[in-house]
Specification:
heterodimer, A: 274 residues, alpha/beta, Elongation Factor Tu (Ef-tu), domain 3, Rossmann fold, seven-stranded mixed sheet, six-stranded antiparallel sheet, 15 strands, B: 344 residues, alpha+beta, 2 domains, eight-stranded mixed sheet, four-stranded antiparallel sheet, 12 strands, 33% helix, globular
Chain lengths: 274, 344
């Protein structure tokens, strides 16, 4: 029965426009929501497949690109497995956008360092794009991005464009490869390489939990203020609106009070440790 | 707003019979096995009037164990909504306080429409506890045995009559229509009520000070070893969570009934279950049992007061009755407070 029930839990429709295979298990989906869908960098949506369930997915599309949404999805579980089976013109459901966004306004006039580990570049992409399009407002900007192998490097075209616009880019891979003559190692090994003033910098990072943990600690040790290091956390979520309790860890609903949290907010808490 | 009247006990069944014509009447009934359960009433004279302790908490009428949310088929989605009018009679004060907290929780920021739809259509009649159980400790939390606010209709058993108080817009119409059954309270009625509440308060055996426990945790005097010791006794049955009138975690599942058709439903979930926080890709924030137990206690003792200004416990004592490992709220809060760690 329709009536007083509002649409907190009701997904609205969206059509898959395009699917691009990025690596063996990562695909980039371009979807067209049926309703206007304004969002800010850092927010996420609940992607819904009737008969399978819902998963939180961060919005990857560059800011100001409202007609279509891009979602970068790794095939890793039950629902993402089903999403990877979909074809263009298939219908999916979306709810949102939920969560808070990166506090990019505060970073104006400062140096910025982005640190991404693997798929962690996905939630950072709208933010980096926004910063690079408005480069005059910021000082030096650097990106340190790590991947498993050279073929796992995501958004290579975007990275090239950003580099042309004046971004310092440091790519690194865990393993050596025949056609890779770049850096080898973890992102944490290359944190010091960018030529920026860490004391006046803002840091935005995303990646696997262990990487986030170490990177935040190291950046803080290098002089970045703990209120200026931000990460995007992931958690098991069922509702996205602070009710189901799955993402409620250490007194914070990651879905409503996160996913963007500063080092100051999480350093003493056991949010993402194992 | 608050309105006080007197109802002769002989009129109670007539009043309920009239009210039942427009709403489903739910009240405590004794089952053949001797347990008292909240159920839809068929014979009004079978209602247990002495305010017994109920193991399933009345949250199930607002936030049921299993609730269908949507029915989906090809190209169509139906929102399933429960708007049954319910009159829930014989709820204890502690449960009523819990419902007031749930109203806040489900009604803030993003409104939970399923809960609110049920809540809008439900009226609760609570009864002041004359005989608290040995497991009860609401007296230390201000959530019982009687309430000053946060109830729809409250009855106090004064022997041959009830004192009837109304404190909400939901409760008032139920009395207004049958005002001829009620009389104005005399001074002696107030005196009798005062005496009843006083004698009830004296009957509490447990005095649990959650504030002391909270302070000790905030001062970081409780180490993780303590929580690991608690976890050793935990069976992970989820009984405390399911019976708690304030636990609200749920899981959302899709049940496929036939091809391209099915139901999206939500069921109660428990933060002390192992897979509660596990993500695809095996990222597992609280894999350890100790950290899950700690989460449950911290939610109720630390996070609830931070957010709502009240403890996430109303002292109903259900976890004391349910927990097979004897690590319920009363026991653990007392242990933290007194500092009894000799048995570790």
């Amino acid at each position: 029965m329709k009536g007083t029930i509002k649409d907190t839990y009701l997904p609205s429709g969206a059509e898959i426009i395009d699917i691009m295979k990025m690596t063996d298990n990562i695909k980039l989906f371009t979807i067209k929501p049926q309703r206007p869908f304004p969002y800010k960098p850092g927010e996420f949506i609940m992607l819904s497949l009737w008969g399978k369930g819902e998963v939180p997915i961060s919005i990857t599309s560059t800011y100001g690109f409202h007609k279509y949404l891009e979602l970068c999805i790794r095939r890793v579980g039950y629902i993402t497995e089903a999403i990877h089976m979909l074809r263009p013109s298939d219908e999916i459901g979306i709810r949102g956008p939920f969560g808070n966004s990166f506090p990019v306004e505060e970073a104006r006039g400062k140096d910025i360092i982005f640190v991404a580990g693997g798929l962690g570049i996905a939630p950072l992409r709208p933010l980096i794009h926004m910063v690079m399009n408005d480069k005059k407002q910021f000082k030096r900007v650097a990106l340190v991005s790590g991947s498993c192998t050279p073929s796992d490097i995501l958004f290579k075209d975007d990275i090239n464009t950003w580099q042309k616009k004046g971004m310092q880019v440091f790519l690194t891979c865990d393993k050596k490869d025949m056609d890779w003559d770049g850096n080898i190692g973890l992102v944490t090994d290359y944190l010091k390489t960018p030529k920026i003033s860490f004391k006046n910098a803002f840091a935005f990072l995303c990646g696997p939990p262990v990487m986030i943990d170490i990177t935040m600690k190291n950046l803080h040790g290098m002089g970045v203020s703990e209120n200026r290091i931000f990460t995007s956390l992931e958690a098991h979520m069922k509702c996205g609106v602070g009710k189901c309790g799955h993402c409620y860890i250490d007194g914070k609903y990651i879905c409503t009070e996160g996913p963007i949290l500063s080092y100051a907010e999480i350093k003493d808490r056991r949010l993402y440790k194992h | 707003m608050k309105n006080v009247l007197i109802l002769n006990k002989n009129y109670l069944s007539y009043w309920l019979r009239q009210l039942r014509k427009t709403m489903t009447l739910i009240a405590p009934l004794r089952s053949v096995h001797g347990d008292v359960i909240m159920k839809t009433v068929e014979n009004i004279h079978e209602i247990e009037l002495d305010c017994p302790a109920l193991i399933p908490s009345p949250k199930e009428f607002l936030f049921p164990h299993k609730e269908d949310m949507f029915r989906f088929s090809v190209g169509a989605t139906d929102i399933l909504k429960d708007d049954t009018k319910r009159l829930i009679f014989g709820v204890r004060s502690c449960d009523m306080s819990a419902i007031a907290m749930l109203d806040k929780f489900f009604g803030e920021q993003f409104i939970d429409d399923y809960y609110m739809s049920r809540r809008r259509n439900a009226v609760f009649i609570s009864i002041v506890c004359n005989n608290p159980e040995t497991t009860c400790f609401c007296i230390g939390l201000g959530t019982g045995p009687s309430l000053k606010s946060n109830f729809d209709i409250q009855l106090t058993d004064l022997g041959d009559r009830y004192m009837v108080e109304t404190a909400s817009n939901r409760g008032a119409p139920l009395i207004k229509k049958y005002i001829y059954l009620f009389s104005k309270p005399k001074k002696s009625d107030y005196e009798d009520q005062y005496e009843i509440i006083l004698s009830s308060a004296s009957k509490f055996e447990k005095r649990i000070n959650l504030e002391n426990a909270r302070q000790k945790i905030l001062e970081e005097r409780i180490s993780d070893l303590f929580w690991e010791w608690v976890a050793k006794k935990c069976f992970e049955c989820g009984g405390c969570v399911y019976e708690c009138p304030l636990c609200t975690c749920f899981n959302v599942l899709d049940k496929v009934e036939s091809e391209n058709q099915g139901v999206r439903l939500r069921v109660w979930d428990a933060c002390i279950f192992k897979g509660f926080t596990r993500m695809a890709g095996n990222v597992w924030p609280s894999e350890k049992k100790g950290s899950r137990i700690k989460q449950w206690y911290f939610h109720k003792l630390i996070y609830y007061p931070e957010h709502f200004g009240k403890f996430g416990c109303v002292g109903c004592g259900r976890c004391t009755i349910t927990c097979p490992g004897h690590i319920d709220m009363a026991t653990i809060a007392h242990k933290i407070d007194i500092g009894d760690r000799r048995n570790r």
